[in-house]
């Protein structure tokens, strides 16, 4: 019996045995390395991500033309509907991550919310098919009738059901994919690094299909057909995903990082009245030496959460034994995890504006393209398909970075390319140039519109090529390649080990807040200036683009200060901590 127990422990340890540590199969038993995980299981997860991108981007990039052309919304209002939809999708990633960590687990979270997204997309297909859910078309010289509150309410219900599904599953897909590989095994660790590359490739592939094939179907066959294809593709992806249930490895959850953060904040707030000076040695710690995070002197007000106050910190458990209440007393390592997240926040805040600029590329830039000459011979390019330049710019930038910039940096400096903070800074700089290019292009387009139509909107395309928009798409797209990879690397590598899902959600909230900030800026500018009129030809969108460029210059300066602060390593020596210090 003793020998059998030793063998089982050896297998569970992952040190060349059959079992993967900290992973279980669909029955809750220790996961067998030979029967679970690996590329087969990871590939099934990638199908969900491909269809999610196909559906979400296929709706978002061409939604503004539906809102202005079919629902007859003003230009600025249509742009805000799109940005609010995208912002909500990314914001709900926090909800999905919380549910996955606390209750459902990543597998069930993906399955449930993928089904929610499929249902929402199916409802959207039906709503665009029924004539009762859209206003009558313009004609006969009468003014266009704007969609009624009921019609818009149905559209909003469909969009936000899709946003719920997208946000719920998106925070878990990449994490569940990496769960299929064991970091302790060298061969599987190498495969995990390849998974990230293929994961990003599937994101790009889904977006490319959405902005080309799916947009073409929307414009030339029908939106209900395109949205129905999205719903069907998601249902197929769910079926494929569920077929791999026996192959998946599921990681045991250590609880929600959000709850852990709140516990530290609540415990620190409860002990805010402490006056006596403290030392690191006097603080509470319950982790073994190898798992501890060294105490730092930064943000000393949070250290109050680890101050021991005797019996007041304890609670009686179900077994009748007294144990520390985590809402009153937290370990030094738990406090340090919150400090690590706090150090990320300045960089987090200064990356939000980039995604505000990104939002213009799928809203106002699509409206610009819709007024311009989009012919290539006998073929007319759908306006929303111009966003394919985004995907192209991302792919080209990443290829040039891997094949040219990294070898060049190795030769000249011995470094493996740019650091994550340098990538973010480069992305912010490219977005400034992109906005300047967009402003110059719009000035030229407005001049042509004034000479052709006297500034009024017209159904006929303006005699100016849509490819004049190419520089702004390429510049902002290249910026996205740098800032997306830089942000993801920064948040994952600088966050605590037990909060990787939380850090991914934190990264995605920059996208969310960037879209919401776009809506706020559009509303503010529309109310304070005449720059954003009911139609794009009666607006001064170039002034709005210049405003974004100026704000981005200020933001870049703030980012450089924050990046310099982020590279300064906080002191780890045990030093006196004054409870009266401020954060």
TrEMBL record:
It comes from Zizania palustris. This is Nitrate transporter. One of its GO terms (cellular component) is membrane. One of its GO terms (molecular function) is transmembrane transporter activity. It comes from the Eukaryota. Its main location: membrane. Pfam families: PTR2. Keywords: Membrane, Transmembrane, Transmembrane helix. The keyword Transmembrane applies. One of its GO terms (biological process) is oligopeptide transport. It is a multi-pass membrane protein. The chain crosses the membrane at residues 77-100, 107-130, 150-169, 199-218, 224-244, 341-361, 381-401, 421-440, 460-484, 505-523, 543-562. It is found in: Membrane.
